[in-house]
Amino acid sequence: MTAVLRPKTLRFRLMFSFLLLLVIPLAATALYGHVFARDILSMHAVDKSMSEVHLQAETIADSLRQAQGDGLYLTSLRSLGMLQQQQDSDQIAVWRTEVAQDFMILLSARPMYRALRYLDVDGMEVVAVESDGRTVTRRSNLTTRASAEYFQQVIGLPEQGVYVSSFGVDSENGTSAAPLIFYAMHGGNGGIIVIDIHAGWLLRNLPADLGEDIWALVDQDQRSLVYPEHFRPEQDRDDLAPMLNGETGSFETNHSVYVYDTVFPSSSRPDQFWAIYRETPKSILFAGLNTFYAAAGGFALVGVTLAVVLAFMVSRRLTKPIARLQEMTASFGQTGTAPESAVQLTDDEIGSLTKTFCEMAHELERKRKQEHRLIERLIRAQEEERKLIAYDLHDGLIQQLVGTRFYLSNCRDQCPIGEENTRSGIQRGCDALTSAIVEGRRIIEGLRPATLDDLGVTAAIEELTQSIAQAAGWELDLKIEALPKEPDTSTAVTLFRITQEALNNARRHAQAKHVHLHFHNGTGISIRIVDDGIGFRQTAVASEGRGLGMKTMQERAALLGGNCTITSTPGEGTQVDIWVPNGGMPNVTLFADMPEDVDRVMA
Question: What integer is the mean pLDDT of 114-132?
Fold first, then answer.
């Protein structure tokens, strides 16, 4: 998965292109939907809230019209007309009782009224009945209401005029803790009918649970008529001002949406109006819009997820042949074994490329096998030539040296005793011939060690290392791991010759005291040779045209697809690392890279 997400991979680019082609129209559609849905849904939410406010305004107007109808009914009562005509105190008392009875009957049928009263032209209560919500009683202690605002206002109105008070005003001190509205009108013969209305009844159709909404009823002077307990309109007078225009509308603040409507409580006073409004937090009013966004976001997320999955599957299908070709290439580069020809290939450029690669790999494998056979023939020819040279030296030169030493020994023995100088000279000649014979036999052994043919490469390298170490006087650290099977001739000979060259170089030039050789068997055969000699500068050796032995060692390893690395620092010794595949064919060998003596031997 990490490789897929790398920006430089073809699969990532395909996925990115696919998603880009999908996301651009999706983003454009989402942007258009956002603008369109926001306007439509916002307008719908405000219209719905405005309808609810308008419905409450109609309910208040109907309630006031009902109060007006009840007032007109009371003014048309026969008992009230008879009371207004009486002059005798006894008759007045009788008809006052009748009026009270009629008032009580109406009051018992109107639980929204707290009291019904009839005042004379001087503001004195003539009849007063009250209700506590359970029982209706006639009040006997009648008082004057001449100073009450509603009395003074109604007196100044025409005959059909109606006065509707502001919230909480009573007849004695102008204020009341009870939420009341006083509805007053002329009652005929100069009298006044007063209906005390429970203000809460006007908003009786509000939801039982207002939640975070605020409903309020205010007059044009910003005096509140009805409001929730936690609401204080005097703290929000700046928000109330736009609603006191006698019209219907809505507006928004930073956190809320106000929707309002206007109620005219009295047709005789067009300058008096109430504003009923609803304040709703935007988070509540536009909850539908938020729900729409959440749903749209969910659908968009699902769409993007499906798009990613689809892009992943499509890109995987498109790049699978390329990935397979990449695996085949990597495997061929690591193992050198040509991949099997693909049975199912796509009929496109990738299938054609895969087929071409398989054909090329098989052709290259065939050439490498042929090259490996040539290398084996080359090494075998070299070794045969070394054998011939060794046989010639052994049967020819060495035998002649031995014979010469035999003749000199006889000559020394036949010399007179007095000729000590002659005898001494002959003896030195015999000693020199003995050294030459030993050196010749060592050269013969180096040309083709019998141990390499008889006991294998590990025993040959061990014997070679111990022999050179003994001759050079080294302190030797030798670690040789056994091989599961003996490598082929070319590998064994190459390892032996490179090791022989490295040890001889150390003997001639390193001036070392300690030498470490580690023969390791792993993915291939590796040999590490380390000495504590004087070391050298590799750049200096190359610039001086020396180092033919090192170059030969590296070329020998390269012939088998291996490598030979030589690192050295003056004063810190030298390290030689050799690695060749164990019995495998060369990985990086071309016929053109063979050394010059190949042509000579093969010829």
Answer: 90
